Amino acid sequence: MASLYVAKRGAHLPVLGDRDIERVASALERPHSAEQVGIELRSLVDEEQYLEHRGYEVRIFTDGSKIEGKVGAALSIWTGEAEAKTLKLALSPHCTVYQAELLALCEAANEISRRKENVFAIFSDSMAALQTVADPDSLHVLAVRMRGALSHCKTQGKSVSLFWIKAHAGLEGNERADALAKAAALRLKKKPNYDRCPVSFAKRVIRMDTLAEWDRRYSAEQTASVTKLYFPIASEAYRIIRKIEMTKEVAQAFTGHGGFSEYLARFKCKESPACICDPYVDESVAHVLLECPVFGSARFDLEVELGQRLDARELPNLMRKTCARNLFLKYAIKIIKEVNKRNK
């Protein structure tokens, strides 16, 4: 989180390459409260309702798309019954559909400010993007830009209405904007119109880099030898352990720290580290669970249930499979309880 904080402050992070994180707009960039435009957002749930609101001089349909790892946005501008103009926008591959939707809305407001007509309607199927724009307290940089453009349109004497429409409901303008946005994502070859890295992407990249460093250190260290029997990869261990109910016996199984003669002897709590099965074999957690003949019957029963031999090399695979993991841990808890009781 510290890396994300400094990145948001504008510091360069090697893991993000040349990408700049999308930061919220400064409060100073917001229009003065006296200049803010009240934005009314209306919903049209079907074609019948849309037909009741098509009598605008200019109708602009917007859409954003992410396909095959590429991102694009588009505008389909209609006057009367015909499409008069289209506009395709490119975004960097790390951008989101949400950003694409906002960029299309923002560009629609800019387009309106450049046109000579006076009555406009903007149609989008992204409720999230429209609500962000309509919220005067939202400081998303694209929403702030759009509200600024709408304020400018108001000073020009222009009327702009915002509508949410249902996606893929057969509305010609919306279907056209959707096709244009997909084409922009797949085929547009130009410098991105917007390339700010969303915070969600930055979090994911920083997290992946952190996990990779964690794995590197975990593998290089000579400690945690017992834990590595089960989890040779630290990042994989994190995902699996979250699903396990951690008891003192489970913790002992994964660490080797507990009531085993080998561990107790290290701290002078027991004279000999040997197991009761053989004075020349240390009683470690791996020994009691995988080798000790004292628990051979219980181990055999587990192997029958698992359909395989219990072997140290197979422990990582057992941990990955929910059913096998639960069976093994049930067995381990039972054995460890007996060992702890004996070594009290």
Automatic annotation (TrEMBL):
Key words of the record: Endonuclease, Hydrolase, Metal-binding, Nuclease
Residue span, RNase H type-1 domain: 54-186
SUPFAM superfamilies named among the record's database cross-references: Ribonuclease H-like
Catalytic activity: Endonucleolytic cleavage to 5'-phosphomonoester
GO molecular function terms listed in the Swiss-Prot or TrEMBL record: metal ion binding; nucleic acid binding; RNA-DNA hybrid ribonuclease activity
EC category name: hydrolase
EC numbers for this chain: 3.1.26.4
Gene Ontology terms: biological process: DNA replication, removal of RNA primer
Origin: domain of life: Eukaryota
InterPro entries, per database record: RNase_H, RNaseH-like_sf, RNaseH_domain, RNaseH_sf
Family per similarity comment: Belongs to the RNase H family.
Protein name: ribonuclease H
Species in which this protein is naturally found: Bombyx mandarina
Gene that this sequence comes from: LOC114251364
